[in-house]
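Something for you to look into today, if you have time. Could you write out one complete protein record for me, on any chain you like? The space below this message is yours for that.
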Amino acid sequence: MSLIGKPLEAVDTPALVIDAGALERNIARMAAYFRGSRAVLRPHAKTHKSPRIAHMQLEAGAVGITCAKLGEAEVLAQAGIRDLLVANQVVGEQKIARLVRLARYAQVTVCVDDAANAEQISAAAQAAGTSVGILVEVDIGMRRCGVEPGEPALALARRVVELPGLVFRGLQGYEGHLVTVRERAERERRVREAMAPLIETRQFIESAGIPVELVSGGGTGTYDITSQIDGFDEIQAGSYVFMDATYRAVEGPGNVFEPAIFLWSTIV
């Protein structure tokens, strides 16, 4: 039974409730920002995990969708979304086999930070007669994934270019350790400082004769900082669609996004 448009009193509790109007306004506000930006928006689906909301974001102007994991990308592709970034590493024989199957009917890009992983994806893609887009992930201070900036990133980019079945597209760097820094000026200073080696790595790779189509990263707490950095092309912000309390506190009076998801409960 559809409860869309029904009064909240008609909803059995507990229930997770989306304010559709707030959701639509949040999508529209972020889309409006990027219409005036040099960078483009590839929103992260890990927040909503919903093909319907992803289509709303695309209709508003997003260039594609970012996913945290392969399973999210598969679901979105089955729903007709064809430009997908898996913003993490896909490892293991079974998952790599799924990745190359996905690449046969969607434009899929994945991050790598290890030559052996790139070689495994290459072998599987070649056997399947398809190709997979690759972003070399660079560690810009989060210490989670990524190669070091500079020569290590160049060496991996060169290896990706050499491998059949892979298309080197560019770099990813995620400043997740900085997106909730409370003071705006300090957040901007630290984000620009973290991004400098990533942009220098882009220039280093390009000076070696390897084209870099894009540099991708960013989040809801930094979208209006990273999008202003020369050499940074694509922003992966996702939380803005529902806008959680932490990001609202970080943004303070300048916040333009509304809470759009709530837990509806009965207290006795």
